[in-house]
Design a protein that fits this description.
alpha+beta, 13 helices, 32 strands, seven-stranded mixed β-sheet, eight-stranded antiparallel β-sheet
């Protein structure tokens, strides 16, 4: 391992933010960029009528609706660390994109609205983090509003998620009385004064201890916070960095991303303590497995996202590659693990949402965007020396089905091209009926809003106007088991067997009962909710 490679890999912090919709994820993303110096004026997501939008929401539909639909990649420097922030969709209908992104990060920030506590989507995304053994940092947001009692909230998170939560700072009040934070380890107090509605850095005043704040805090708040800190000292969990990195303990920070209170301590922690790139297991062409260390000299990486038409003026298609090991260099040749084909890594880019710049080199933990002529798929592995593959990124069974009906039949070719591109990107899943080939694919989505995005992007990017015709199916399952079991399904007229875009057989069913009946009657049959890798 070269000295440069070791130093650069140790500087990298690649993380994502997970939350329930409307917990303030895009706002927090903006404020992390503001405090790192990457941007100088944050675009409030609430002020959608204004000219400024969040840097991370680059798609027109995101800016109009005020929600994140795609994953953005944001790269910036702070306190000597190189941070790669993967901004993910908060809306439940785009959960697949979030799952794919969590495969590319080394740690996660779990953002919670302190007025609501643990919400359903947070719980589901946390389980994905746990499955991937990701270290999780908790940030309690919206302290500028009255909310739940801080001690009760910590208890709820610990109990609901079965996770040890250790506050590293503690709030002084909430709502209009939110004055600042006290650092648990040192007792030092940060007092905030409001800036320009959260668009600029706040002025922070530091004092040695809470006892020095009698002129700012009411006697009642002083007593309440002192009591809370004593309870934490006596009954709280102990902070342990190694336990955090192994996913057993979550450090907890408090603040208000909207008004910039408490963002800086979170950013300081991420730069200093968030996990740096770790080892990953790869399968070689021989079928054997081996552990790949980020410090290995040979470059390897995997595709976790494909995004078409980031620049509407050009029909471009960008594959996002997470560097796992070695040094990536512009113009290098790599082997595509799935096919054994050699590809030239020309025109690699680094990103700030939709703004991009040519990158000459990248290191483990970095995200590189490559112009892709259509050869790469989500989950593909690229390596400089030998064909190998990291664990693939799964697709989940859709629950909504339909087909696009053209307003103008002469736009069929443009529709087919758009559907193929957007399916590769993961916006939609396509299913083909053997009797009609690749014509008129049926479409599947995890949430109905995906169809809205599909229609919008077909219209804006491919000039195709089409309406959605819904299909009667409610479930999809990938088919496994014996050839006889599949034949049994295909012989029956009450089951519909189609193929996904990779040619794998998929069962579509109208009810869960039909799936259970098939498994009961056809003993050699196996059905999967997640695409077998």
């Amino acid at each position: 391992m070269s000295n440069e490679l070791a130093i650069q890999a140790a500087r990298r912090r690649t993380f994502g933010i997970i939350s329930h919709p409307d917990a303030g994820k895009t706002t927090l993303t903006e404020k992390l960029l503001l405090y790192s110096g990457a941007i100088h004026l944050a675009g409030s997501v609430r002020a959608r009528r204004a000219t400024r939008h969040a840097v991370s929401d680059w798609m027109q539909m995101e800016q109009e609706r005020g929600i994140s639909i795609t994953s953005s990649v944001l790269q910036f420097e702070y306190h000597g660390a190189a941070l790669n922030l993967l901004d993910t969709p908060g809306h439940a209908d785009f959960s697949e994109d979030t799952y794919r992104t969590l495969a590319a990060v080394d740690s996660a920030v779990m953002l919670m609205d302190h007025t609501k506590g643990v919400e359903s989507r947070t719980r589901k995304l946390f389980e994905v983090c746990r499955m991937r053994e990701l270290p999780v940092v908790t940030f309690m947001n919206k302290l500028d509003r009255p909310g739940l009692d801080p001690l009760e909230l910590i208890d709820e998170v610990s109990t609901t998620l079965n996770l040890k939560v250790v506050p590293l700072n503690w709030p002084l009040g909430m709502g209009r009385d939110f004055k600042g934070l006290v650092e648990i380890a040192t007792g030092r107090v940060s007092l905030f004064s409001g800036g320009k509605h959260g668009t600029e850095r706040v002025v922070t005043e530091y004092r040695d201890s809470i006892a020095d704040c009698a002129d700012v805090l009411s006697p009642r708040m002083l007593e309440e916070v002192t009591e809370q800190l004593e309870l934490l000292d006596g009954a709280g969990e102990t902070w342990d960095l190694q336990a955090f990195l192994s996913g057993e303990v979550s450090p907890c920070f408090w603040g208000s991303a909207m008004s910039n209170f408490g963002v800086e301590p979170l950013l300081d922690f991420l730069a200093e303590h968030a996990a740096h790139p770790g080892q990953r297991v790869a399968r070689l062409a021989s079928g054997e497995s081996r552990t790949v260390d980020p410090g290995e000299d040979s470059f390897t990486g995997f595709v976790f996202k494909i995004q078409a038409n980031m620049n509407p003026r050009h029909r471009d298609r960008v594959a996002f590659i997470r560097v796992v090991s070695g040094k990536f260099e512009r113009g290098m040749d790599v082997v595509l693990g799935r096919t054994g084909e050699t590809l030239r890594m020309a025109k690699p880019h680094t990103f700030m949402a939709d703004e991009r710049s040519i990158v000459e080199e990248a290191f483990p933990g970095d995200i590189v965007g490559l112009y892709d002529p259509g050869k790469l798929r989500i989950g593909d592995t690229v390596a400089a020396s030998e064909a190998m593959s990291y664990d693939g990124i799964p697709r989940f069974a859709p629950e909504f089905f339909g087909r696009m009906v053209l307003e103008d039949p002469l736009r069929r070719k443009a529709l087919d091209s758009g559907l193929e591109q957007l399916a590769h990107e993961g916006v939609i899943q396509t299913f083909y009926r053997p009797e009609v080939g690749r014509q008129d694919p049926w479409l599947g989505a995890v949430g109905m809003l995906q169809f809205e995005v599909l229609k919008e992007r077909l219209k804006n990017e491919y000039r195709v106007t089409a309406r959605l015709e819904t299909l009667k199916y409610k479930l999809a399952r990938w088919i496994g088991g014996t050839p006889e079991a599949r034949e049994w399904l295909e012989r029956r007229r009450d089951y519909r067997v189609v193929q996904d875009r990779n040619g794998n057989p998929v069962l579509l069913a109208e009810t869960a009962w039909a799936v259970e009946y098939a498994l009961r009657e056809d003993k050699g049959l196996k059905l999967f909710e997640v695409e077998p890798l």
